[in-house]
Amino acid sequence: MISPLRALLVDDEPPARRWLARLLRDRADVALAGEAGTVEEAARVAAEVRPDVVFLDVQMPPANGFDLLPHLPPGTRVVFVTAHDSYAVRAFQTNALDYLLKPVHPERLEETLRRLRLQPAPAVSAAPSERLGLDDLAPLRDGRTLHMARVGDIAAIEAEGAYTRVHVSGQSPVVVLRRVKEWEEILPAPPFVRMERSLIVNLSRIRAAEGGTREETRLLLRDAGEIVLGRAASRRLRRLL
Q1: Lowest mean pLDDT, pick from 28-37, 115-124, 183-192, 227-236
Q2: Is 192 within the bounds of a domain?
Q3: Inside any domain, residue 126
Q4: Alpha-carbon distance 193 to 157, whole Å?
Q5: Phi, psi dihedrals of residue 97, rounded to the nearest 5°
Q6: Contact 97, 127 (CB under 8 A)
Q7: Which is higher by pLDDT, 70 or 165?
Q8: Could you tell me the pTM of the whole model?
Q9: Per residue in 196-212, pLDDT tens?
């Protein structure tokens, strides 16, 4: 029989801890190892109970959840749980296993627990890496919905003012409030290349390039539709391919 995962709940809001504990309490595959309301308390409890996973809030004034990471025992997996999605990229740059938005829904928690059981423990880093890896998850906020996309499945990103349209293999494009330059700073290069000011393309997701005229090229993406390149981007694509 597989031993249950030992879980530590860290949140400065008791109602949030109670709700998550309620969702986990009756599960045979999870054992509640402890709770903490501050980073200092969490570091002490983690050293005592050595949890397999920490469900960790981000905003816990005067500290935040990222301050706890250097004090966790080696091999501890981290799932961030917060009411704000603005920390999602930083969370995944620390190799967090997942990122849950409050209030936590049972179906979403089930997905996280499945990943905990199937994936080996990543090395959680207190200092975020500068760029995401191809197997990391990228948070895509579309209105009230937070989509999680594997970075390597992102085929292209097009600028739309202060927003970007993200083409992801196997699903409809998602429009998010993030500029092309911000994407360029966190995506791995290669295979991601900024073709022009308004466009980033994942070269590994190109299925074919069809030259329509001298002024443009039709780029066919793998399971992510197509986009049209202008003259300058077409010239750069020919040099890269």
Answers
A1: 115-124
A2: yes
A3: no
A4: 10
A5: -70, -35
A6: no
A7: 165
A8: 0.60
A9: 889 999 999 999 888 76
Q: Let me know if residue 181 belongs to a domain.
A: yes
- Give the Cβ contact number of residue 188 at 10 Å: 15
Q: How many helices (H) and strands (E) in the chain?
A: 6, 17
Instruction: Give the three-class secondary structure for 73.
Output: coil
What is the residue range of 66's domain?
5-118
What value does the mean pLDDT of the chain take? Answer: 85
Q: Which of 53, 85, 118 is the last residue of a domain?
A: 118
Classified as helix, coil or strand, 225 is: coil
Strand pairing report for 63-64 and 77-82? unpaired
The three-state secondary structure class of 190 is coil
13 and 102 assigned to the same domain: yes
Sign of the dihedral through C-alpha 77, 83, 87, 89:
positive
Residues 164 and 224 in one domain: yes
pLDDT computed for residue 97 by the predictor: 81
Report the number of distinct structural domains present in the chain.
2
pLDDT tops 60 at residue 1: no
DSSP string, 142-157: ETTEEEEEEGGGEEEE
Question: Which amino acid appears at position 101 of this protein?
Answer: L
Gap between the Cα atoms of 2 and 203, Å rounded: 42
**pLDDT confidence of residue 63:** 82
